[in-house]
Design goal:
With 460 residues, the protein is α+β, with helices and mostly antiparallel strands. It folds into 2 domains: 95 residues, OB fold (Dihydrolipoamide Acetyltransferase, E2P) (Beta Barrel), CATH 2.40.50.140; 325 residues, Bira Bifunctional Protein, Domain 2 (BirA Bifunctional Protein, domain 2, 2-Layer Sandwich), CATH 3.30.930. It contains 14 helices and 16 strands. The chain has an 8-stranded mixed sheet with strand order 6-10-11-16-15-14-13-12. The chain has a 5-stranded mixed β-barrel with strand order 1-2-3-5-4. Strand 14 and strand 15 form a beta hairpin. The chain is elongated, with a radius of gyration of 27 Å. The relative contact order is 0.11.
Length: 460
């Protein structure tokens, strides 16, 4: 039985075997060893009491050290200590895997997050990263429940693609060619000799492929890893991250904004309901505004504000900005956080952005200057969702591609969707790691993904 269930449902008199990793061991003069055991299922530890007369005690107890894996069999009894309801009175135990105390680095002391990134194979055993993993798991479960309960179809889109969805060119190339040999020969690349017969890359988004299924099966979503070869070393960027991208036919921008708000609010409610112990930890140890932030998100409608109105507010704010504000430039994190944390003090959805700063697939408004884009901004994180109504008019779509130096012929299949039963449709993307940052209060995005990939770092 997992320790989480033992601590919540276990009753005195039950006999059971529990397996996990030792957090601490303390020996008393009364011939008892007190062991704190954790199996990763929850924040709490199960206290186990091992009497000296337990068979094999003398030989094995020395190996019951921090980090060791053990199996303990005994009876649950009421605990005389404070802060715990029950404990395990051990009658039999075995050390499954030793952990040399001289070498095991996770002793009972605080470690910096920077240091823990260097030992990503061990950091999930700490309170913080165990809690991050459990909350991340709940967010993923919540995402699937949200869409499945609304009859969305889960679609697996390609990880390898020949299309650049964002048009930014920051893609990781995939090849089987001998690059070292080509460099020696100083010859041009013959892509016909490559595995796919043409240049291919890791995907930056599953959106374009999701649109295929949205215009065939109706509402759908894709959820998987995406990759950006952006040389950015910040607390907000990763080279590999996970995205959930719903795509909905017959949705216009207002429908898209409504679904995005409901989506974020559902995730926050689910985490508060299903991870109370972990959320209490984050609120106490990481950021004491986490719970209030989530409650604010779940209890308020999001402010809806055009990009133009937002720029006017920022210009009149009297603030000294690191990045100057002007119409036609993209908003930065400092601008987004001011809107959500200082001016409105609640989430904001910005819409109708300048066409020049948005990708080709976003629907152009009648003014010709803006597109039907939206960004959902939340306190402490800034942008957490980006989306748009898609351009369903073939001629306008092709013009937009040419504006961004893209050849419509290379996107022939995407264009054909506008020839065969085209409809207004919309979608958005949520970065999973940004969502984990929001609900945990963790400041660095490298600490909310199991194995961060950033420029110069691809360990583990």
């Amino acid at each position: 039985m997992r320790i989480r269930r033992i601590l919540s449902d276990g009753q005195p008199g039950e006999t059971l075997t529990v397996k996990g990793w030792v957090r601490t061991r303390r020996d008393s003069k009364q011939g008892l060893s007190f062991v704190e055991l954790n199996d990763g299922s929850c924040m709490g530890n199960l206290q186990a009491v091992i009497p000296a007369e337990t068979p094999g005690y003398e030989e094995a107890i020395k190996d019951v050290s921090t980090g060791a894996a053990v199996a303990l069999t005994g009876e649950l009894v009421e605990s005389p200590g404070t802060g715990q309801r029950i404990e395990l009175r051990v009658g039999e135990f075995a050390v499954i895997g030793k952990a040399d105390p001289e070498k095991y680095v996770l002793q009972k002391k605080r470690h910096s997050f920077e240091f823990l990134r260097e030992i990503a194979h061990l950091r999930p055993r700490t309170n913080t990263f165990g809690a991050v993993a459990r909350v991340r798991n709940e967010i993923c479960a919540s995402i699937h429940r949200f869409f499945q309960s609304r009859d969305f179809v889960y679609v697996n889109t390609p990880v390898i693609t020949t299309s650049d969805c964002e048009g930014a060119g920051e893609m990781f190339q995939v090849t089987t060619l001998d690059l070292a040999r080509l460099a020696q020969l100083q010859t041009t690349v013959d892509w016909s000799q490559d595995f796919f017969g043409k240049p291919a890359s890791l995907t930056v988004s599953g959106q374009l492929e999701a649109e295929i299924y949205a215009t065939s099966l109706g509402d759908c979503y894709t959820f998987g890893p995406t990759f950006r070869a952006e040389n950015s070393n910040t607390t907000r960027h990763l080279a590999e991250f996970w995205m959930v991208e719903p795509e909905m036919p017959f949705y216009e921008l207002e429908d898209n904004m409504g679904l995005a708000q409901e989506f974020i609010q559902t995730i926050c409610r689910d985490v508060l309901e299903h991870c109370p112990e972990d959320m209490e930890f984050f609120n106490k140890r990481i950021d004491d505004t986490v719970r209030a932030t989530l409650e604010n998100i779940t209890s308020n409608d999001f402010v809806r504000l055009s990009y133009t109105e937002a720029v006017e507010l920022l210009e009149k704010s009297g603030k000294e900005w690191q990045f100057p504000v002007e119409w036609g430039s993209d908003l930065q994190s400092e601008h987004e956080r001011w809107l959500t944390e200082e001016h409105f003090e609640q989430p904001v959805i910005l819409f109708d952005y300048p066409r020049t700063i948005k990708p080709f697939y976003m629907r152009v408004n009648e003014d010709g200057k803006t597109v039907r884009a939206m960004d959902v901004l939340v306190p402490r994180v800034g942008e957490i969702i980006g989306g748009s109504q898609r351009e369903e008019r073939l001629d306008v779509l092709q013009d937009r591609m040419r504006e961004q130096d893209l050849d419509p012929a290379e996107y022939w299949w995407y264009c054909e969707l506008r020839e065969y039963g085209t409809v207004p449709h919309s979608g958005f993307g949520l970065g999973l790691e940004r969502a984990v940052q929001l609900v945990t209060g963790m400041q660095n995005i490298r600490d909310v993904i199991p194995f961060p990939r950033t420029p110069g770092h691809a360990e583990f």
